[in-house]
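Repro case for the chain-ordering regression, as requested:
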Amino acid sequence: MGVRCLALSDGKLRYFFEPRSVAVLGASRQTRKFGHTIFKNFVRSGYHGKVYPINPSADEILGHKVYPSLADVPGPVDLAVIAIPAPLVTQAFHECIEKGVKAVVVISGGFKEAGPEGIKRETELTRLAEESGVRLIGPNCIGVFDPRSHVDTLFLPSYRLKRPLAGEIAFITQSGAFGSAVLDWAAAKNVGISKFVSFGNMADVSESELLEFLSEDADTKCIVAYLEGVRDGLHFLKVARRVTTLKPLVILKGGTTSAGQLATLSHTGSLAGDPALISGIFNQLGIIQAHNVEGLFDAARALAYQPLPKGPRLAIVTNAGGFGVLASDHAERAGIPMTKLSSKTKDELREVVPPNSSLSNPVDLTGSANEDDYARVLHIIAKDPDVHMLLVMVLVQTSSIESDVVDILTEINETYSEKPLLACTVGGEYTESTLRMLEDNRIPSFPSPARAVTAVRALWDYAYYRKNLVPQSTRRRRKRR
Amino acid sequence: MGVRCLALSDGKLRYFFEPRSVAVLGASRQTRKFGHTIFKNFVRSGYHGKVYPINPSADEILGHKVYPSLADVPGPVDLAVIAIPAPLVTQAFHECIEKGVKAVVVISGGFKEAGPEGIKRETELTRLAEESGVRLIGPNCIGVFDPRSHVDTLFLPSYRLKRPLAGEIAFITQSGAFGSAVLDWAAAKNVGISKFVSFGNMADVSESELLEFLSEDADTKCIVAYLEGVRDGLHFLKVARRVTTLKPLVILKGGTTSAGQLATLSHTGSLAGDPALISGIFNQLGIIQAHNVEGLFDAARALAYQPLPKGPRLAIVTNAGGFGVLASDHAERAGIPMTKLSSKTKDELREVVPPNSSLSNPVDLTGSANEDDYARVLHIIAKDPDVHMLLVMVLVQTSSIESDVVDILTEINETYSEKPLLACTVGGEYTESTLRMLEDNRIPSFPSPARAVTAVRALWDYAYYRKNLVPQSTRRRRKRR
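-- result from build under test --
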């Protein structure tokens, strides 16, 4: 493992995401079988390479010739996806080695998580992978999704689990179910993904190795992870420290309480550490700790789309006083100070705001503000050097706001590209579509003030770490390269 | 004011919700005017009483004859809605008094919130209301919405602001914008409302009076409020204590930090109290304090739909291990203990669960569980006397779960009607529609484990208060009635 950790870019991991050819072992004509869905994903998703269905008892699936075994496949195979009963997996892995397959995803369950017999099977898989050098993700996972190459081993049909578009956020998860639910959520909210890996039992490829790989992945601007435990604690710490000098890393750690730890024992079999210790370590390593499912991608979207702030001070602009009040409350609780706007800024604002506006921070434009009021006001506030971050709250229920407000925020965001801008709007269907439009323009947008402020805090936490706490040795090493 | 507080059911408040006739002062042919939308609401929403548009410079609006003044209206008028410029409101209120109107909603802004001239206007309105006995909600508000009587003074068109269906939750708010956004949210999520009031500047009817009225309203099972300040602190405390002996009261207090308080000054002009003090007082009075927008209705839905638990212990059933782990974490942090399932319960479970399930709590049925597995398992767990509350997590991305799961949860919920049941499911579009279906069957349902557990905690907090902390004097008084 020591060797792997030093080999920062183990070339073989890229075969999981950019294979030139894929074989699906367990591809089936029966639509409810995992192997059927996985094979169909490759056929229908726009994957450009060759796909071979492998099944000793079928001739043809979805118009494709089926091969009885891997050995029968005419060309080379980069990636094999194994979705067959656990007792047959070891033999299939042997065939992968013989065929010269580079990377294998084992979807099948029935290993470490399933008692003594399973543990034996998994130990054997680990041994085979290490001896052969064939890399293995899984078993007991939903595998890999890459929206650019269209690798998609998710065995859940897309009418159940929508696939997100290509984006900047890489997402790795120990729990496949967690991963599937959050991917589905991301698709609905227009949140783009760079690469997704559900890594299951980690018989071979570990969470740390994936983190290293993703830290060097050009498509990935921010990494998020759901972890219950890690394979090798000390190694993980080393890797995480390196990763956070390159890009932000947001982690939701399941099992940070004794009740949660008990639950992880029966779930992934992970043994988890002390909660306070974990928070302390995360802080020291510059890892942003999410405290709930929402917080994971809320922090990630802010970090992936926006620049790091030069300071902690926040300005809020709103057309709804109550939400300005609540956001101020959340900011203070999160330790984020509100900018005291300069008299110059206030004088300029006075010229352009609607009647009865409040010029202190939060700047409350009242319900009569239209999108042009926002434009004028935001241009002024964004120029105030003491405003380090901007939170724009826009209730779209009021008739004075047209959907052009999305274009206006996008323009402000692009004009003041060195200053983080976040948006918040609360409501029903029309609000949801506004949120999706803002997201599409890479403005991290939130359905409540509390969630917006959590993201603000994550931005400042990571900015502070990068500015003040990145270990000197790492800095020097990076400069030398 | 003392007198009003003793007159628990001031008959006149009901004219706001069940007027036999309504006049809209400022009804207009111009579709962007507030008066136009308000008049249209009454015409189109199914309101059964008479509606009179009042406007000195129009003959006909939406096919209805327009009256130049209130005095010209042929029949009696119970409710007048005033949506005309502030300087004209006092005169209009005089006309309401002369006409014998019972209740007036003043939508118009330009009063206390708008400087010395506005304060003068508002003082005059207060005086007129007190002297005449004509009750007044507002000014500077969006007024009243009652989905049963179809009173709807919201000046926001329904394509912007969807109206929720009739339900059990009453919602009062100091901030109109807050109210509109949350109503819109409620409509999208299928959350029903009994009565809604945005009460604005409280020139006459105060938050406390509304709370008292709603505490005796048969349609209302739970009251939620967004408050920045209260008109009379001591009076509010007395009222709140009485309300919480009758039904749950959930409050989100804006301005609980110094930054937030500063913001309320320019918003509603409220002076707010010390945050720790507020939490302490809320606790003592049995008020459930929401800490963010989400928490307000999450707590309310649990309290409105479900019985109070007999104890704090929670059982979790899931088909996704990761979410079981996270829910356990949140429960422990919220001080909610997990039930240790009895060996009898475990023995019964062992007979029916899918392979590889975990029988400790959380009970993890694994991704292969179908809706019938849930039925069998929930029947067993609900019978365990040590399970006081049930949280059912169902990821619907997996192919094994059919939408029948909604019927099954509904049946369990009805069969064990003395035990609170909550549901949680995480994901995208299909998940959202599952949440709406569950909501429709009065199962409080949440898009994340953290939010579900907040609601669990609210249930237990209120149950504990009702069981142990309701002041003895109040108990005796209630029994005597």
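Ordering looks correct now. The CA atoms of residues 111 and 118 of chain A lie 4 Å apart.
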